[in-house]
Design goal:
By secondary structure, this protein is mainly α. 72% of the residues lie in helices and 0% in strands. It is built from nine helices and no strands. Helix 2 packs across helix 3. It is elongated, with a radius of gyration of 20 Å.
């Protein structure tokens, strides 16, 4: 094992873990593989992440958080709530589709990891539906959307559009008319929210 001159950080460990997962898959990747990729002992990795499960949860959270950052900015924008909702849903769909298409092996790995890490996934979904609730609330306040319970409506919008962001639907995202399907669902959702 070659000594490393860089300081070992949690971020470096997560980057190396992602590479190891890409190379070996979730069933075969080990903490020893991660340590070897970093040129350190596995004990050094365990000083940052006490267990393999915690490491896998952290790498899953990091992957999910990459989607959340862009969406957080869109949800906070000061513009027409209907436009903001459309842009937010489109950005979520594009982010998930890009992850599935750009690196299918890693995407498949993360599908396994998200099933293992329900807490990280639950927090991610709560964050996303919270952003949607913020947009819905802004729409109600601006009289763009009909009066509604923003949190309940946000969950309904999230579920209604699941086909375009739930990883289990990833194989359908390559259909030639997927954009038209997405637009039709978003149009239906928006029409349902509008104030009469």
């Amino acid at each position: 094992m070659a000594p490393t001159s860089e300081i070992l950080t949690a971020e470096r460990i997560l980057e190396a873990t992602e590479e190891v997962l890409r190379r070996h898959g979730p069933a075969k990747a080990t903490v020893v593989d991660v340590a070897r990729a970093l040129g350190v002992s596995h004990g050094s990795v365990y000083r940052h992440f006490r267990t393999k499960a915690l490491l896998r949860e952290a790498v899953t959270k990091r992957w999910l958080d990459r989607t959340t950052a862009t969406l957080t900015a869109l949800a906070a924008e000061d513009r027409d709530p209907e436009d903001r909702l459309r842009a937010w849903l489109a950005a979520l769909f594009e982010a998930k589709r890009r992850k599935a298409g750009d690196d299918p092996e890693l995407f498949a790995t993360y599908q396994v990891l998200t099933e293992e890490n329900g807490e990280a996934v639950g927090a991610h979904i709560a964050d996303l539906t919270g952003q949607l609730a913020h947009i819905v609330r802004a729409g109600v306040d601006a009289s763009t959307f009909a009066p509604t319970d923003p949190a309940r409506t946000a969950r309904a919008v999230f579920h209604a559009t699941a086909r375009f962001h739930d990883p289990s639907y990833a194989p359908t995202w390559r259909q030639p008319d997927i954009e038209a399907q997405f637009e039709a669902v978003v149009d239906l959702v928006v029409r349902g929210l509008r104030a009469r």
